[in-house]
Amino acid sequence: MLKKVQKILHVILFVFIAACLVLLVWGKIDKTAAEKRMVFEHQPIQYPIRQSNITLYTDGKQFNNQLFSDIRKAKHYVYINFFSIADDKVSHQFLDLLRQKSQEGLEVYYAVDRLGGILLKKKERELLGKAGVHFTYYNKPALPYLFSSMDHRNHRRISIIDGRIGYIGGFNIGKKYLGEKVKLGHWRDYHLEIRGEGVQDLEHQFVLDWKKNTEQQISIHRVTKEKGATSHRFTAYYSGEKLSQEYAMLFQQAKDSIIILTPYLILNDRTIWNSLVDARNRGVRVKIVFSPHSDALLVKEAAYPYIRKALKQGMEVYGYKKGVLHGKVLLIDESILMVGTVNFDSRSFHLNEEMNCYIHDPVYISKIRPVINEDIQNSKRVTSSNVNQLSIKEKIKEMVARMIEYYL
Asked: Which of 400, 281, 290, 279 is nearest to 345 (CA)?
């Protein structure tokens, strides 16, 4: 009897290993073929320079309260997508609010990325439909490029209310973004509220994304053309190559300082890395703040090789120590501020659809600089010993992380 059990276990193990190898090879062929045919390659959309009033939110509760309030006050329509949604009290309140507004007669369109929306239950989707909410998943996996389509995610987070108010940034929907997950603790993020002519670009991008994923054309309304105080522009990315080129161009312009805030530090894009090294060689001070404490597995260990490289080049690396830092921010010479959805990792550089807001207003930037300084002050500077004197467990985790870093 024992021999039979052992034989069955051996067969199961063999089948499992064989299946993993088949999937690995299939995935590699799939990815290579998709890249060769440029299936997911599109030119970025660079919107015009606009003037809007911009408010920055770094606290999840304040952001949620304002977003929910704006939706409650909506009179005509709500277009909204987040990368992910949880299955908790906050998420249910959000979905209830969308249903309520639809039942009041408003146009409500809601999208979530297929992978990020994995916790959205079928019952919840059905309730949205019954209430008249238009719902879709972005980037559904599809043949013939199954693995590549699974990897290709819509990481944009766009909200438009009545063509007057728009939002974009790092927050998603769920209680962890309010700092209410005990294991994660305090959650620090960067999310912009746009009031003014820039809202039309957010709405235009939402309509494009909706049509791309559903083949349904939805209305572009008479969005406000009212000018605000702050000069900015949006860029929507589909291709990592174009994103790399734009970041490299920004870093090449730097004369004094580059500050990067990112949840994850997997800096394996050669174009971006080389431009940062060139900046250091010109005497530009480079500070990178990342989040060692994270909601994602192995990202801290995946960062170790890049921290070592950065330190060797004289860059300053800081680990946020107050909780989770999830903001995506660049600050170049106090003259260009970027807040958006792009992380410093493989997914954002090579796989995701992203959107950034570039702000060129020195007055506004001077107001945000103390916020960035606060995050640096709440971080600990990383030294060589921190990433070289690792335990055996940490070394093993780093090895595993390096094997799969492209997908983290």
From this structure: 290
**Residue segments in the chain with a per-residue pLDDT below the cut of 50:** none
Q: CATH code for 239-407?
A: 3.30.870.10
Q: What's the topology of domain 45-233?
A: Endonuclease; Chain A (3.30.870)
CA pair distance 59, 180, nearest whole angstrom = 12
Angle at 331 between CA 328 and CA 332, to 5 degrees: 140
pLDDT tens across 136-150, in order?
A: 999 887 777 776 767
- The pLDDT value given to residue 372: 98
Nearest Cα neighbor of 341 from 65, 147, 81, 3 is 81
Placement of tokens 């003037």 in the chain: 51
Which residues make up the CATH 3.30.870.10 domain(s) of the chain? 45-233, 239-407
pLDDT digits (tens, 9 = 90+) for 248-295: 999 999 999 999 999 999 999 999 999 999 999 999 999 999 999 998
Can you give the pLDDT at residue 110? 98
143 CB contacts (<8 Å, ≥6 apart)?
Answer: none
> Two tokens at 232?
């900015």
Predicted local distance difference test score (pLDDT) of residue 94: 98
Beta strand 134-138 with 107-113 is parallel
Q: For 288-332, what is each residue's pLDDT tens digit? A: 999 999 988 899 999 999 999 999 999 999 999 999 999 999 999
pLDDT at position 395, please?
Answer: 85
